[in-house]
Amino acid sequence: MFLSLGFFFFFFWGTSIEVDYLSRKDYRAISTKKYPMFCYDRDNIYDLFLRYENMKSRNGDYDSIDRTLAILRYAKKHALGGPRIHEVYIDECQDNQIVDIALILKLFDRVDGIFLAGDIAQCIARGSSFRFQNIRSLLYLWELKRPLTNYNRRGIIKPKQFEMNINYRSHNEILKLASSVIDLIWHFFPDSIDKPSCERSEVGGPKPAVFNEISAEECFLKVFNSVNVQGKHTTNHIEFGAKQIIIVRDDDDKEFVMKLVEEAAMVETVFDCKGMEFDVVLLYNFFKNSPARKKV
């Protein structure tokens, strides 16, 4: 089961800040604009959450949220000690739950020394509802309600945000394609992500090619050195090297494609190749086997 549990936590503000699960009543009352995910089916989602918690309890299991919550509860009762940290830098912050950021604030207790960097376009975790706007709200509320005995006595610090829109790893045509996808998400689900801004590159390049109404064997034969069709090898003059990759949706597609291309190409799922860089990328049948098709 893939279920994002980050929004099941609520921050109670006062002389101290605590984190715990939301009640059903509080979960149903959350602003739709603040948390748009599952906004029209929250009772069923909460039922799933309770079943998930019961399943973990029966099996003696725990997840990353339980781990973070346990540390927060321990930090409430015990001084953690250790070396004093002056600054914290967090990269790929879109891969973290909001409660993970709350833990860092609890341990560090200074928002003016925390720097977060991330990219909503690289947020690929299922069920993730990451938005920089939520992080800004958390940091501001933390400053607003933090005890006056804190090390920082200069008053409330409003978190600043700036965007780096020049991409040095892709050319403009690829960025235009990526931007069009983000624009579609913003158009149909405007509260699910931060408002996008266009990236640009100082380098031009060819438009991405689309292979439509063509078999997998024919497609791979066009771009790879060899392809295995029913045990017979067919060769082409185009070689496929280490800086190219085929990206597939899941392990089933990966197994199918690997049987066709064998050692002629690297094949990985989106989750396995995140953060890696290649010169040529082939996205194979990514939408055909999407679970979303079953809901249309």
Features:
alpha/beta; hydrolase activity; 35% helix; 3-stranded parallel sheet; P-loop containing nucleoside triphosphate hydrolase protein; 9 strands; 296 residues; hydrolase; P-loop_NTPase
Q: How is the topology of this model organized?
A:
Layout: E1 9-12, E2 18-21, H1 24-29, H2 42-59, H3 64-77, E3 88-90, H4 98-108, E4 114-116, H5 132-145, H6 172-188, H7 216-223, E5 226-229, E6 232-235, E7 244-248, H8 251-261, E8 266-269, H9 270-273, E9 280-283
Parallel strand pairs: 3-4, 7-8, 7-9
Antiparallel strand pairs: 1-2, 5-6
Helix pairs in contact: 3-4, 4-5
Strand content: 5-15%
Question: What would you report as the Rg, rounded to the nearest angstrom?
Answer: 23 Å
Helix content: 25-40%
Q: What is the number of domains?
A: 3
Number of helices: 9
Order of helices and strands, N to C?
A: EEHHHEHEHHHEEEHEHE
- Structural class from helices and strands? alpha/beta
Q: How many E-type strands? A: 9
InterPro entries: P-loop_NTPase, TRANK1
Keywords: Hydrolase, Signal
Organism: Gigaspora rosea
Protein name: P-loop containing nucleoside triphosphate hydrolase protein
